[in-house]
Specification:
This protein is of the alpha/beta class. Helix content is about 40%, strand content about 20%. Helix 1 packs across helix 2 and helix 2 packs parallel to helix 7.
């Protein structure tokens, strides 16, 4: 299946998560594109929406190649085999992690506009992205949700390679994935429309979700 866009994928994902109705659920979108998908899931069920912001650790000289990922509160997921194979120095690694930690802090401040994060302790945390490629950032996001005390962590994505789903099933309590096509080259190939999501769109989505939450309270 090829999804029309992230919104349609989110609506289909919401249907697949209908069994969670009645549970105490928090939806956590991975910026940027994952927030668009997560918004549809949260809206369909009236669940609160927030973000979890993992960041890829880039290889020296090749920013597209990941050495792992980090998430807030000191979560680190490092590919030791890749680090050793490339001979990555400790000093490079710490500089790269520090840079990405600053970016996490910047986005957290900008996206939440001074509000505290939604509390996930003892709740069902549904971590949503628009798809999975290597799975590094998704792993970091799931570990962060667990570290915050979530009772159960579900990773929900429209599309991912079968191997990635299997690997992530050892991290999340459950992985909900609509499609596992093979061969799998990139997330964007499974969408008719896959534009770059900008910060302005993420801010609008989160502001709308907060406004709905305030009205319900």
């Amino acid at each position: 299946m090829i999804f029309v866009d992230r919104q349609e994928a989110g609506r289909q994902l919401a249907e697949a998560l209908a069994e969670l109705e009645g549970e105490d659920v928090v939806v956590l979108g991975i910026p940027r594109g994952g927030v668009v998908v997560a918004a549809e899931v949260a809206r369909a069920h009236g669940w609160p929406l927030d973000t979890v912001i993992p960041r890829k650790i880039r290889a020296p000289g090749n920013p597209e190649l990941g050495l792992g990922a980090i998430a807030p509160s000191g979560v680190r997921v490092l590919d030791q085999r890749m680090l050793e194979m490339l001979g990555v120095s400790e000093s490079y690694l710490e500089r790269e992690i520090a840079e990405e930690e600053r970016e996490i802090e910047r986005r957290s401040h900008e996206y939440r506009r001074g509000r505290p994060p939604v509390d996930v302790k003892e709740k069902v945390a549904v971590v949503v992205d628009d798809g999975i490629a290597t799975g590094g950032t998704a792993t970091a996001a799931v570990r962060w949700a667990k570290a915050q005390g979530a009772r159960r962590v579900i990773l929900a994505v429209p599309v991912a390679p079968a191997e990635g789903v299997w690997n992530l099933s050892t991290e999340a309590d459950e992985v909900v994935c609509l499609e596992t096509p093979e061969p799998f080259y990139a997330v964007g190939q499974w969408y008719q429309e896959f534009p770059q999501t900008e910060d302005d769109e993420v801010l609008r989505i989160l502001d709308d979700a907060r406004a709905r939450g305030d009205e319900e309270r």
